[in-house]
Give the backbone structure.
Amino acid sequence: MNIVWLLLIGAAVITAVFKGTMAEVSNSVFTSATTAIELAIGLVGGMTLFLGLMRVAQDCGLVQVLARALRPVFRFLFPDVPKDHPALGAMAMNFGANMLGLGDAATPFGLKAMQDLQTLNPDKETATDAMAMFVTLHSSSLQLIPVMVISLRAAAGSKNPSEIIVATIFATTVSMAVAIVTSKLFARWYARRREGGAA
Amino acid sequence: MIRDLVNAASSWIVPLLILGVPLYAFAAKRIRVYESFIEGAKEGFEIGVRIMPYLVAILVAIGMFRASGAMDWLVWILQPMVAWAGFPVEALPSSLMRSLSGSAAFAMSSEIFKIYGPDSFIGRLVSVIQGSTETTFYIMAVYFGCVAVRKTRYTLAASLITDLSGIVAAFIICSLLF
């Protein structure tokens, strides 16, 4: 992350020197910082609502039912998480909300899941394999029906805005499989490297 | 028709959840739903504050990168390789942008729809790519930020490989279907 961060900023400044876009870059610094805080504040409303709702769902056992249904999948994806751990419930809710296209609800559940996963983490500053798998899965955009894209297409006057659904589900499934395989391979590779380092 | 169904479903789902879950908890399990809700909701604000520094760090870097026009260079470097694979170069910038900024990628997609039409091959390809990849950098900042994890190990590498696989899969399926 350190390298990527410096790379983005470095590339920006160097490009700005050559292209003469330094003024734009300078302006973007403050607008981006403000946007970031607005985004965070914007998340708070939905977060508060859905974390409240999730507590109710937890207290009455609904979350646990969902987590139990997904147990075989979770045991494979997150072998380090004990089978009745609350993180599994939160992750189940997050995946569910994502697939239904409820992005506003998915983020609070996802962040709750990260906090629950953090309780299992021996080194609080370093990501566990379960966290890496969980976050990487999000890059495959879990969402089954791309509502945002469909409405963009409709706005652009498409004759059949939703014709891309099947293709999107295919691409998402492929990248989900890639996310799982890559995370598993990286996890194994890192574990081996650590053992090698210790010996 | 499907779109109407999807739209209807997405407007029903949240209200039904907010009614259904507490109703079930209260009626079937005798839970004090209001107190339970408040107890859970307390954490909301704290999480929002905790992710702020991470979001500012990553969004400022991305904002500078975008404003500088460095993306043009990245496109220029990748262009020959991408063209060799038969992938339309016009769809490259918005695909690369997707991992950095969702709103920018969507704006670029709208631009492509305007030029080539949403029902052209490029329009469909861009749609599928946008639908099957994610704003990886934002997700990483927020998810790891809320637990203050700084060393993310292989997560970024794995996520970017996943994004790339989404683009490749979208290209293959679009070539076959459309």
